[in-house]
Amino acid sequence: MTEEVQIVSASREIAAPPEAIFELIADPAQQPAWDGNDNLTEVVRGDRVRAVGDVFSMRVTNGKVRDNHVVAFEEGSLIAWRPASEGKDPAGHEWRWEIEPLPGGGSRVTHTYDWTELTDESRMERARATGEAQLQASLDRLAKVVQSAI
């Protein structure tokens, strides 16, 4: 039996400064424009993320609202959140973004999905279907959005 991969990552270089990229990720209102899972429709609550403990809520394509609890934050370089059903505790999976400046300009962006602690059976099928291709799609869309803005 093959062991199930529960931590998936993708990386790419983006020809933009870390601050410009981070601004798109940390502002929930911008996320539907670059979401490679085609799952987000709009921000419901929450402003630009500024610290661990912040919560922002997004409406997803099925009409439900997800509260995203920020669990890691370093301005300009790292942000991670754990989604939860509206008003509930996080379900045990995490979206993480790491941005590092490259010599001569540009940035390397790494996007990680970790569902090692996911216990909600209703989310398992989607978690299993989230692979490197979906993460890469978000990175590619993010690059397109940020590069058209600078």
UniProtKB/TrEMBL annotation:
InterPro entries: Polyketide_cyclase/dehydratase (IPR019587), START-like_dom_sf (IPR023393). It comes from the Bacteria. Coiled coil: none annotated. This is Polyketide cyclase. It comes from Serinicoccus chungangensis. The lineage of its organism: Bacteria, Bacillati, Actinomycetota, Actinomycetes, Micrococcales.
